[in-house]
Design goal:
- By secondary structure, this protein is mainly β.
- The chain is built from 1 helix and 12 strands; from the N terminus they run ββββββββββββα.
- Strands 1-2-3-4-5-6-7-8-9-10-11-12 form a 12-stranded antiparallel β-barrel.
- Strand 9 and strand 10 form a beta hairpin.
- It comes from Streptomyces erythrogriseus.
Length: 164
């Protein structure tokens, strides 16, 4: 499954659509302005909230929390000692599952893996559309909404780190 994201500099209040490779609107990333912490909602094409994404307020490192239906789904934070390239760890709420996100986040060239197996590739390379990157979900049983939420989180965290 390939999804296309029109690249924007994410900020508070930014809303943008994620489309499939046929141009159909699939997800809306709805940035919530005027909040104490950075907050996004991932909605389906009918406007139903699928996932809430929030910055964790009192964390030692910048951390984003992904929730579904008010229940924690995952926590995203920069991996310690990642000197050569951006590397993030996604801890799922089940307590035992971790996803690794690594690559050039700000260039939109990175991968999401579970236990060494590729789940999704985020890339600009194969697209001719300017200011667009693709999210190629490799596994059929992967959760597209969760993988989009992970991409939103790591891009947001990397951009905040660059600014800060």
């Amino acid at each position: 499954m390939r999804l296309l994201v029109r690249d924007r500099i994410l900020g508070i209040g930014d809303d943008y659509w994620i489309e499939d490779d046929r141009g159909n609107k699939v997800f809306l990333v709805d940035g919530k302005a005027m909040r104490l912490r950075d907050t996004f909602e991932l909605k389906d094409a009918e406007g139903r909230v699928l996932i809430d994404i929030r910055q964790k307020m009192f964390a030692l490192r910048d951390t984003m929390v992904i929730e579904r239906g008010g229940e924690p789904l995952a926590t995203v934070r920069r991996k310690r000692l990642s000197l050569l390239r951006n590397h993030y760890r996604v801890s799922l709420a089940d307590g035992g599952t971790e996803l690794d996100v690594s690559g050039r986040i700000l260039d939109r060239e990175f991968a999401v893996e579970y236990d060494g197996e590729l789940l999704a590739v985020i890339s600009r390379r194969m697209l001719s559309l300017r200011d667009t990157y693709g999210v190629d979900i490799v596994r059929d049983d992967a959760d597209p909404a969760l993988l989009i939420a992970v991409a939103v989180c790591v891009i947001h965290l990397a951009e905040k780190e660059r600014e800060g």
